[in-house]
Amino acid sequence: MSDTPLHLVPVRSREAKDFVRAWHRHHPPSAGQIFAVGAADETGTLRAVAIVGRPVARHLDDGATLEFTRTATDGARNANSLLYGAAWRAAKALGYRRLVTYTQDGESGASLRGAGWRVIASRPPRAGWHTPSRPRAGHGNDHVTRLLWEAL
Fold this sequence. Notes:
Blueprint: E1 7-10, H1 13-23, E2 35-40, E3 46-53, E4 65-73, H2 79-93, E5 98-104, H3 110-114, E6 118-123, E7 146-150
Parallel strand pairs: 4-5
Antiparallel strand pairs: 1-2, 2-3, 3-4, 5-7, 6-7
């Protein structure tokens, strides 16, 4: 894709989820959110979105932490770095003290590093979320090692 300059734009929940559905490589849209932000080009075309919500892991859901639950881009250069930085500034402005996200094994994390994030833990592959008492369908991301990142 081109080096078209991008700027931040507000994005409503439905629009963010539709964008994720169209462009994310391996996840469906997340279930909930606290806020979403987008990146658009000079024509106003939405090129990337970020969805930020409560942490999925219960031990991280302390009321002061948010999780970057989805990001999706059409390939626009530097879009994810722009959104990672903007989401952290927004979370801090709302009073949150921590913002985390995960990458899967094989993803470089270059956008996160470019936005000043750091790896704080490696998570082993999960067998899945399904249990006999609570049946759940997999989303294609079970059995994958993940890295936990934190905004600085």
